[in-house]
Each structure stands twice: as C-alpha cells, then as structure tokens.
Amino acid sequence: MYYEDEERLLNPDLFHVFRRELYAINSDLEVTLGLKYVPTHTEDGIPIRKLYVSNLPPKTTRSELFGVFAQYGFIKSCWLRMGDKGPNRPPTPTYAFVTFSNPADAHKALQAPIHEKTLRGRNLKISPADSWHQPTEDADGRGRWKPRGQRRADGNTSSSENGVQEHDINNIDRVSENGDEAMATTSTTEVPVNVELQDQQKCTTDNESCYTILDVLNRDCLTHILAYIPIRDLIRSERVSKTWQNMVREYLQGIRIFKTSWWQHVTVMLTTAVLRRILQRVGESLTRLHIDHHWSALNDRTAHIVGKFCPNLEELKIVGMHTRNWNPLIYGCKELKSLSFVSCNKLTDSSLVQLVKSESCIESLTVANNTHVTGLFLTGSNPQKLNSLAFYNCYSLQGTVLSAAIDTLPQLTTLKLDVCPYTMWKIIPLILNKLPKLEELSLSEYISVEMCFSPQCNDAFCDALATLTELKILNLSRNIYITNAVLKRVAQSCPKLESLNISSCNSRRSLPHPGVGDEGVAAVCRGCRGLAALDVSYLGALSDAGMRAAAALPRLARLTARGNPALSAASLACCLAACPLLEELDVCGCDAVSEELVCAAVRALAQRPRALILRVAGTNALPNELARDEYPSHKLLTVDHLDDRSNPHLRPDFVDHMFDDSSDDSFADIYDQDDFDEFFGQDDDLFLDEDLDDFEGLYQFGLHAPDIILL
User: Fold this and answer.
1) Counted domains in the chain
2) Which of 9, 189, 471, 527 has a CA-to-CA distance to 90 between 20 and 30 Å?
3) 251-265, 276-290, 443-457, 643-657: least confident range
4) Is 406 helix (H, G, I), strand (E, B) or coil?
5) Alpha carbon 421 to chain centroid distance?
6) Mean pLDDT of all residues in the chain?
7) Region (Disordered) spans which residues (predicted)?
8) What is the pLDDT, as a whole number, of residue 677?
9) What's the burial of 626, exposed, middle or buried (CB within 10 Å: 0-12/13-18/19+)?
10) Residue 487 has pLDDT above 60, yes or no
11) Residues 71-89: b if buried by 16+ CB within 10 A, e if exposed
C-alpha cells in the first residue's frame, strides 16, 4: 500500500498539471510586478550551461547564432538541428543547442531582454536544456567536457539503457520563459516515439566541438581576406573540409565582378574548360564580366558558356577574342544591358544583328578597333532600349549606312564616333540633326588631312549643334576641324553642358584654318555656366586672357590645362579664388607657372575650405627640395610635383629633331669619315699582302681558314 500511494503521488500527469499552474502564476507575477524567475540549476541540481533555442528563421547558420549569443560570454559549442530534406525541399533548421563555458553567462543570456535575442526579425525562444543534455561538472565546479569518442560511447549506452525513462521524462511539456510551450519535447500523440528517441540520441552523441576562427569572424572580414586569394586557389581549397567548402561557396556566391585579366598571374593558361569551371561557381551571381585576358586560349564555346552560367549578367566586355557567333548571349543572359567588343577581329555585322534586335534588352553597345563592322547591323533592327552607341577606330564604318540606321534609334542619348574615317565628318551633321535628345557626344581624334577643310562643312556642323539643346557632355579633343566658331555655337545652343574637352584642337597651327583660342574659350565660359569639368590642354592660341574667363564658372570642379607654355600663375590664381567648388587643378607641363600658384591655393583654401589637389609636375612651382619647406601649406591641400601627366609630343611648341639635319642627334653625324677611321682603322690595314702564299698570315688578322668561303 505504501508503494501504491507513492506512485499515485508521483503521477506524471499530476506533476505536469502542477508545473503548468506554477508557471502560469510565475508569468502573472512577471506581468503585474515586473518579476521574472530564471533558474540557475536544473531540477536535478546541475548548473545550466546549455540552452535550447527554437523559433529559428529559415537558412539559419552557426555563425549567426554565435553572433547573437557571443555578447553574453564564451561559447563552448553550438549544435544546429536540421530537418529532413526532400527531393524538392532543402533542409531547414528546427532548433539548436548553445553551450556556454560558464553557467553565469548562460544565466545572463536567459535574463536578457527579448529584443536582444532576435534573428532576421524573429524573436528566438530560449529556455534551459534538460538535465541529461547539461554537461556534468567535477568537485571544483568546472565543466567536465568529454572527448569525442567517449561522449559518443556514453551517449549510446545511456540511450540504450534508459530509453524508457528518457521517453517518460520527455512526455512532460516544458514551458519557456514567456509561458509558451517549448518545441523541444512534445507528447506522444504529436511526435512518434522512435523519432523522438532518435533526436535525443543525436543531440547526446553529437560532437560538441569548439568553434574555429571561421565561426568568430563575420562575413565582411572573411570577404575582405578572401579577396586577396586567387579564385583558382579558392576552388582547389574546397576539398580541405566541409566547413571550409561551405564558407568558400558562400563567398563565391557573393562575387559580382570578375575579370579574366586577374588570371594572368596564374601559371595555368586560361582555356574555355577552365573558364567553365569558374563560371559554374561564380556565374550565377555575376553582374559584370570582363573577358580581357590577351594571353587566353578561349574558343567559340565561350559564348555558350557565358550564356548558360551567367543568367544575371548585366555588363559584358570582350577583348581580343576571335569568335564570330555571339547569339547564345541573347538566349541565356536575359538581363544583359552593356556589351563591349574591343579588338575582336572576326566580329562582323552578322555577328551583331541578333544582339540588337527589337526585343533585345541591351542599352549600351561599344565596338572598338575593328575593321569589318560597317553599321549595317543597325538597319531594320529597331532596338527599343538601345540608348548608347560607341565606335572607336572602326575604319570600315560607313557614314551613310549609320545615318540611315539612326532613324530606328529614337531613344539614343549617347553617341561616340572617335577615330573614324575622315569621310565620316561630312555625314556627322546629318546624324546629329536626327538626335535632338542627345546628352553625350564624342568626336575626338579627327586628325587626318586627306580631306581639305571647307567652310561649308564647318557651317553645317555648327547648324547641327544648334539642335542639341540637351547636351551635357561634349568631347572634341584632338579634332583639327574645331574652331572658335564651333565653340561659339556650343555656347549659344548647349546651356546644360557640364563637361567639355577641347584639348589639342589644332594646337600646332599646321593647317591654314585657325584652331581654338582665347575667343572660343571665353565664349564657352560665358554661355555654359553649369560647366563642372573643363579641359583646355595643348592649345597654342590660349593665353592668360582666355584662362581668366574660367573664373566665371561657379560650378567648376575640375580644370585641366596641361602643356600650355603661355599660361602663368596669375590667371590660374584667379580661378582658384573665384571657383568655390574647384577640387582639382592640373597644370602639368606649363613652364611659365611659378610658385605663386601654391601660395594662391593656400589663400583660396583659407577663405573657402575644401579638399584641393594641385598637380604641378613639370612646372616651376616647386623648383627644388629645399624651397618646398619654405612655402605655406594647408591640411586640405595636396600638391603633386612628381607625376607628370603631360605629353610632350602634344605641346604646341614641340619640335621633332629626329630627322633634322642641323640636329646633333641626326643620322648624318654617324657617317663622318673621321669617326669611321677611328673605329675601323685606316683603309690600308684592311687589305692583305699579295705575297702571302699560305694561311699563316691570315691569323694575324684574326681570320681562320675554315671560315673563308671561296667563290
């Protein structure tokens, strides 16, 4: 009878009801009085080191759990339970165990407010783990951490001997700290017995290994470190361990830009097969791909590989590839917006006709250093999204064909026709008349003198500029057909102009018509008050009077005036004092610029502080090392006197002495008769005596008999 009464008092169902009511009272006290009871020991008196964590968001990792709980103390281990995966369902985390080395740290984690224990917008449910999950401790109160093999053996033994008892205890629903039912243990009606026992055995027998450096460092630190390692080495290192493999794959999935020129430091040649292995790992996340490695061995299958493994690609640049068919890019890269072909010799109009069809998503197309493209691929294509078109050094480009194709490009806002045939200059006015919405125009490096300059052609170009009222960027560098009249028309018709480059426009005055001078620069500065970047380098007719006109530009941020021998420091000092937004002044190669420019820059910064870069290499602004310490300085001023960015061959006063007869370095000087006699000796010594009957005399002159060929 005594034992029957004891069993009746220890009825598990009665104990379950009693504990639920006790926790309900505890929760009421917490709400009303602000009291919160957090146990420090389990029911068996074991200190709580291990915590049970539930309500995990999908795709939770150990590193994220370390980031949440590391603020409370040293974490000994972190075990994450992953659910079963199906054929079309990846495994998702269900719950986790976090073990602290010190019970006080676990107690702080339990007492912490809920808002500190959130992950991806979810409030983590935290409660002490059951007593059989808690690590045991010795007499000194230190945790007893068992080795891996011993823990696995003990776990198997305990689970086999006490399986029924553990099952009975698990039937008791544990309540979390906020009163909700915990998800770790459920009744037998909800979870089968065998599944629950398997979970308990796996939790007990799993290795609670200490975390490594990969768990401590956050994702930003790992990304910064791995950025210094070549991709080839990262791919080969995946076989080290599964943890390292997951970390490397996570890093590779975050790469957005890849250039094959980075491969030139690797001894292995970049072939199509190697590129395929790389894009298999990084291609899905790439948005920019540059195939610009000149010493590669890529074949025609490269386009198929890029189209297959790079579905999210937005920018593609190909340099030096001999591939004719690029149609697979359209079928694979649905998000491709920018496409550039540089030095692709086999690229023709038939290679591009499918890339710019009406349903194409390409917005920018660039073709450079090509001898086959004529522009015929644009006729009849009618691409609706193409707004940028650039041709550089394309000698087969036909102006009449391009003019007819422009009618099908209503959205074109950027046009670049650089280093094109000289016959293109006659067709450019017809093209510009069809593009009233043009915002960027580049017509640089027209230096051919095969076409005689005609005022009628220049007037037609000026009339075409009158229609470009929306123009913001204009590049006319190294164009011998640009005069002051052209710049005056730009000043009248382009009030929204923000950037202008007129460097080396007929600077040597080698043609009968004049180039750009003070009159044209002053007109642009008066008419285009919104200019932020101005380049007036290598202009022989530019003086201080024209440069002072730049002081009327309130938004000027970058001024470049390289290789102008007539400029002095006085006009540049006016620009520094009058332009409050000026951040960079480049006067490399201007011989007349003195040290007054540095003093003027210091005074300008004292009145209107801003970061200023002053490039004075090749000038007299800082003549020697000793004088530099005597000049005033400013903490916002950076003076660059070493990097000379000027090109001496583009200077207006450049004279080529290579073929000049009066030069000391000419080739005529080496044909002096006296120099030949000193080097080779007298002519009489070069002939042999007629009395030599054998070969002994030949050895006196350094000759040997086998080396003589008798004809």
Assistant:
1) 2
2) 189
3) 443-457
4) helix
5) 35
6) 77
7) 115-168
8) 54
9) exposed
10) yes
11) ebbebbbbbbbeeeeeeee
pTM above 0.90, yes or no: no
- CB-CB contact of 622 with 628 (8 Å): yes
- Strongest mean pLDDT among 99-103, 216-220, 674-678: 99-103
As a whole number of angstroms, the distance between CA 51 and CA 78 comes to: 10
Nearest CA-CA partner of 50 in 162, 163, 126, 153: 126
- Of the candidates 370, 409, 363, 407, which has an alpha carbon nearest to the alpha carbon of residue 388? 363
The model's confidence at residue 121, banded by pLDDT at 50, 70 and 90, is confident
Q: Is there a domain that residue 151 lies in?
A: yes
* DSSP reduced 3-state for 95: strand
**Mean pLDDT (whole number) for 397-411:** 88
For 36, how many CA atoms within 13 A lie in the half-sphere containing its CB?
Answer: 14
Beta-carbon contacts of residue 573 (< 8 Å; ≥ 6 apart): 596, 597, 600, 604
Tokens of 549: 């006109």
Task: Report the amino acid identity of residue 203.
Answer: C
Distance of alpha carbon 333 from alpha carbon 335, whole angstroms: 6
Find how far residue 347's CA is from the centre of its chain: 27
| Inter-axis angle of helices 455-465 and 484-493, nearest 10 | 20
Q: Is residue 673, in this structure, part of any structural domain at all?
A: yes
DSSP summary character for residue 266:
S
Q: In terms of C-beta density within 10 A (0-12 exposed, 13-18 middle, 19 or more buried), how is residue 645 classed?
A: middle
CA torsion through residues 211, 214, 215, 217, sign:
positive
Q: What is the per-residue pLDDT across 308-340, written as a single tens digit (0 to 9) for each?
A: 999 999 999 999 888 888 888 888 888 999 999
Please report whether residue 331 resides in a domain. no
704: which 2 tokens?
């040997």
Quote the domain boundaries for residue 696.
667-707
In sequence order, which residues have a C-beta less than 8 Å from that of residue 7 and are 6 or more positions away? none
pLDDT at 277: 87
614 — pLDDT class (breaks 50, 70, 90):
very high
Tell me if 540 sits within 8 A of 509, measured CB to CB: yes
User: In the 8-state DSSP scheme, what is residue 119?
Assistant: E
Q: Which residue has the tokens 């025609």?
A: 300
Last residue of a domain, one of 215, 232, 256: 215
Residue 288 structure tokens: 């920019």
In degrees and rounded to multiples of 5, residue 393 shows phi and psi of: 55, 50
Q: Phi-psi category of 382—alpha, beta or left, where left has phi over 0 and alpha has psi -120 to 50?
A: left
What amino acid occupies position 148?
R
Contact 119, 62 (CB under 8 A): no
Q: Name every residue whose Cβ is closer than 8 Å to that of residue 184 and which is 6 or more positions away in sequence.
A: 52, 54, 95, 127, 129, 130, 174
Given 156, 190, 215, the domain boundary residue is 215
Which residue would you say has higher pLDDT here, 431 or 17? 431
Pinpoint the alpha helices (H) of 391-443: 399-405, 424-432
Per the CB < 8 A criterion, the answer to whether 567 and 590 are in contact is yes
Residue with token string 């950076």:
638
Residue 180 is classified by DSSP as P
Amino acid at the residue 618: G
Q: Is 261 left (phi over 0), alpha (psi -120 to 50) or beta?
A: alpha
Do 702 and 693 form a contact (C-beta atoms < 8 A)? Answer: no
Tell the residue number behind the tokens 């018709």, with chain if given: 493
What CATH number is given to the structural domain containing 123? Answer: 3.30.70.330
Report residue 212: phi and psi, to 5°: -105, -175
Q: Does 179 fall in a domain?
A: yes
Q: Is the Cβ–Cβ distance between 483 and 458 less than 8 Å?
A: yes
Per DSSP bridges, beta strands 558-560 and 533-535 are parallel
DSSP helix, strand, coil percent of the chain (3-state; round to 5): 40, 15, 45
Angle at 331 between CA 328 and CA 332, to 5 degrees: 85
Output the CA–CA distances (angstroms, integers) from residue 195 to 167, 185, 186, 201, 538, in the order listed: 11, 11, 11, 10, 83
